[in-house]
Amino acid sequence: MENVAIRGCVGVVLASLIAGSSFRRNSVNLSGAFAGFLVMAATITASYRFGALLLVFFFTSSKLTKRGAEKKREIDAHYKEGGQRDWLQVLINSSLATALALGVAFLTDWNDSCLDSEKAPLVTCLIGGILGHYACCNGDTWSSEVGVLSSSQPRLITTLKHAPRGTNGGVTISGLVAAAAGGAVIGLTFVVAGLFTASCEGQLASKQLLAFPIGAFAGLFGSVIDSVLGATVQYSGFCAVRKKVVGKPGPTVKKISGQNILSNNGVNFVSVLLTTLGTSVVCLYLF
């Protein structure tokens, strides 16, 4: 348990520094910084590899969120400088993976493990879920942040008709490519970090490389699910007064697509959950 204590100390120190820095840079608000601290400290304590996935997701997504700020401000009716994610957004993007990471740590006596469904099917399912979770979150964020800056007009994923920028469920080729790339980065991080934290030998070691294409698939799959949900159960309308796409009906709003059933947070949660479950099954089958 000595290693756990060391990881715990490292987790608390890193989480404190990153949460404080993120709050000062407006990446998160106060509640988001506190939630981020708890999630990051717990994840790193569970495993350095899982902590690496969280950190790569956080830093790359935060960087892309701030890219093209002026254009996003013109398009997004709910634009916030720096992102300013709150506690709910932080937990939607990390709480499930954190719970799975702690579950893996408990089952493996706080040691990192290889993806191996023959010897440890439950652990493989949980690790696959963590991989899918962060690949989905990273892919969806990359897709949204890159897609909105695309020179091509988005198309509604359910009809393939052109839609105004900022419409829920609108997709572009560059956005879909970014989703796969975002997931692939998580898969690559999983593989590289595992070289230092997990002891995989022989054929099993080479099979771990499958995490890279699995991550790319999960990133794209999660983004597509998010877009389908956004186009169907999340409302989009164009406000004649604000001249922007908004997420709620109103007297000055003309409907574009979707029903006012789920909020953006709800759509994100469902897409993350489905991708997490799907990737768990894929890893159980492939490994």
From TrEMBL:
InterPro entries: DUF92_TMEM19. PANTHER family: PROTEIN PGR, TRANSMEMBRANE PROTEIN 19. It is found in: Membrane. This is Transmembrane protein 19. It comes from the Eukaryota. It is a multi-pass membrane protein. It comes from Picea sitchensis (Sitka spruce). Pfam families: DUF92.
